[in-house]
Amino acid sequence: MTDDLQAMQLALLQAEQGLYSTTPNPRVGCVIVLNGRVIGAGHTQPPGGNHAEIEALNNALARGHEVRGATAYVTLEPCSHFGRTPPCADALIRAGIARVVAAIADPNPLVAGQGLARLQAAGIAVSCGVLEEAAREINIGFFTRMQRGRPWIRMKLAASLDGKTALQNGVSQWITGSPARDDGHAWRARACAILTGIGTVEEDDPQLNVRAVATPRQPRRIIIDSKLRIAPQARILQGGGAWIFTAAGQPEKIAQLNALGAEVIVLPNAQGKVDLSAVVAELGRRQINELHVEAGAKLNGALLQENCVDELLLYLAPALIGPGRGMFDLPALATLENKHQLRFHQVQQIGEDLRILARLT
């Protein structure tokens, strides 16, 4: 181990091990280095379990190493408050760690620099900002929720090269290849929740769960259903736990859905539809960090219009369909100045298809 950059890269690899499991907590990795050697490593466990720093300290001790005088590399500022677990900053101090390098400060107002300050006050050398952008990316949803009070919203689409998500008759299986479909499930798995609309539920009867990759948990399933049309036998309701946002107060139907383990939240707007901005705010209050959207053109367009999208996850197949269903229902523009502007964040080939991550500017 030669420098802080290499050590933090290893800590980020540790953080990635919590990609599917730490929500609503951030994904954090930690490595402990002494005399140029990694003597301990760990990542944050599911809620209620150890944070990364504790895992790394325990790992070092289990391997027979003394951590006093070592350097701890952490992908997020060590916490300084009591939550489900005690403060990690205190544990590092008690262990005799001599130096702490953090990738980025914690955006949580309960921490926000206090963890680093506590370490400094205890005589520990502290630095922050090593691979900061990479550390932010792995926790983009957590940062968004802490700073904006809402989740990071990623909209997934699969389309032909001429922008069609299905034939005119609705057939869409399969426009993209199996590697792209499996990759889409990996993005589902990292999300806290998956959102769709009642149109997709009625037409496709999706399970909307993770099947193509191994995951320790299933994301929450969320349905936008203004008139509460959802059928009790819909597959998306199986297993309970779904959240249904509606504009219709129908006590009998709500009671029926509640009995199936679903929760119905009534959030109407002035037009008698679901208030999408209110939904996004409510999901932030419910500690949803990353929201994965898989919906039809109507809801996709409405979410864009309401500024409820941060990123498009677009799979483009090398095929032309001709007349068919588009990705978004959007109003005609009178001027190009009013277009929804995006920037390419990442472009990668997945199997025969192209995966594009494009972020709203």
What does this structure look like?
The chain has a 9-stranded mixed beta sheet with strand order 11-10-9-8-12-6-13-16-15. The protein has a 5-stranded mixed beta sheet with strand order 2-1-3-4-5, with helices on both faces. Strands 7-14 form a two-stranded antiparallel ribbon. With 361 residues, the chain is an alpha/beta fold. The chain has helices at 4-16, 52-62, 88-95, 114-121, 132-138, 140-148, 178-190, 198-204, 251-259, 276-285, 297-305, and strands at residues 29-34, 37-43, 71-74, 99-102, 125-128, 152-160, 166-167, 193-197, 220-224, 243-246, 263-266, 290-293, 311-317, 324-325, 342-350, 353-360. Helices cover 29% and strands 23% of the residues. Helix 4 (114-121) links the parallel strand 4 and strand 5 (125-128).
Give a summary of the structure in a few sentences.
This protein has 361 residues and is of the alpha/beta class. 29% of the residues lie in helices and 23% in strands.
